[in-house]
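Try this one yourself first.
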């Protein structure tokens, strides 16, 4: 049965991506191998090559008989995406990649290397159906949902780049994943949940990333937030609020016409109660739109005493947009007002401005 977000925000019907090992749990992988007349341990071999060795060329599967490599690759490890373009900044430690999927759809991922961690920002949909007017992806509309494997492959591709020394700083591993790229993750609930499982399953069946290092963002699909709260996961929930009052949020985040601020926050507090994880409240500061001191006070009153943290995001403007980042003094005052209410707050590092950093900008420029 479709998840709540999928029932309400169904993607256009298109051809399905090819089946891939990352779409399947270990038992399903063994079943596919058995259908090919091979022993079950071949599934574990392929999982190790994909998730641990990060090998994407079957000719490098030296522990698999040569005659089996191509049939197994076609059945379980087809090519899912092709890099169209890489853009880099921060001395090469931030890399944005535009990917072309099997059907020509375009998505983006971003690798960000810091001294103590490597974060991958991944897309969960090609485009987005939430129609937020200040977001480049929202302006493009929704093309389709990504499969579990298409989401996972973005992270594996980042892991390969690190392992091959393509990112300055020497070999490394992806330690954090944020579902903050193109799309509304909870509108593609089943595939996103599957991706979380693959990313956090212990090696060699998955990438072995800690659940606590995964963040799932949403504009506030209330039924799906509550469903995620009951999954028994330890991932962080990030709610893209952007306004504390319904009048403005109806304009900035159109789904607010269905679930109001109070309902979204009630679902967030339910998530915090069930998981004991602090909820991140994402708030893009937009000049003269949502950055007034009184809105900071209203937000502070809504969040005071809750298991929540505010992540203020200086808006990365898109070309030709009327929306732009707040003045530095207004940003500082917003922070001060929140802190006066006892609400923890940080201002997000604005990496990627010089490489079309806002989600959807690079895809839009290549269509």
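Now uncover the answer:
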């Amino acid at each position: 049965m479709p998840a709540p977000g999928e029932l309400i925000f169904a993607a256009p019907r298109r051809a399905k991506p090819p089946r891939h090992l990352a779409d399947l749990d270990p038992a399903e992988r063994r079943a596919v191998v058995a259908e090919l007349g091979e022993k079950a341990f071949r599934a574990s071999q392929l999982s190790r090559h994909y998730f641990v060795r990060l090998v994407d060329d079957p000719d490098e599967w030296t522990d698999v008989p040569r005659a089996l490599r191509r049939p197994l690759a076609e059945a379980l490890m087809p090519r899912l995406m092709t890099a169209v373009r890489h853009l880099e900044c921060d001395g090469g430690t931030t890399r944005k990649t535009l990917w072309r999927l099997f059907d020509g759809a375009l998505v983006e991922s971003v690798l960000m290397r810091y001294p103590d961690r490597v974060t991958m920002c991944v897309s969960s949909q090609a485009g987005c159906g939430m129609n937020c007017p200040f977001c480049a992806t929202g302006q493009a509309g929704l093309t389709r949902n990504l499969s579990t494997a298409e989401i996972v492959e973005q992270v594996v591709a980042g892991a390969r780049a690190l392992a091959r020394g393509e990112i300055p700083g020497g070999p490394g591993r992806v330690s954090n994943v944020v579902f903050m790229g193109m799309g509304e993750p909870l509108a593609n609930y089943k595939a996103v949940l599957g991706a979380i499982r693959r990313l956090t399953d212990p090696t060699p069946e998955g990438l072995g990333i800690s659940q606590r290092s995964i963040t799932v963002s949403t504009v506030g699909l209330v039924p799906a937030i509550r469903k995620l709260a009951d999954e028994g996961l330890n991932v962080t929930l990030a709610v893209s609020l952007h306004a504390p009052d319904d009048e403005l949020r109806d304009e900035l985040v159109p789904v607010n016409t269905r679930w109001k601020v109070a309902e979204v926050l009630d679902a967030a507090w339910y998530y915090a109660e069930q998981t004991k994880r602090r909820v991140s409240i994402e708030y893009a500061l937009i000049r003269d739109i949502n950055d007034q001191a009184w809105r900071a006070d209203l937000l502070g009153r809504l969040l005071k005493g809750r298991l929540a943290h505010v992540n203020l995001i200086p808006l990365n403007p898109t070309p030709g947009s009327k929306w732009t980042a707040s003045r530095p003094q207004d940003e500082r005052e917003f922070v001060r007002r929140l802190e006066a209410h006892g609400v923890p707050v940080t201002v997000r590092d604005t990496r990627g401005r010089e490489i079309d950093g806002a989600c959807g900008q690079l895809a839009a420029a290549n269509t």
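Discussion: The radius of gyration is 21 Å. The chain has a mean pLDDT of 92.
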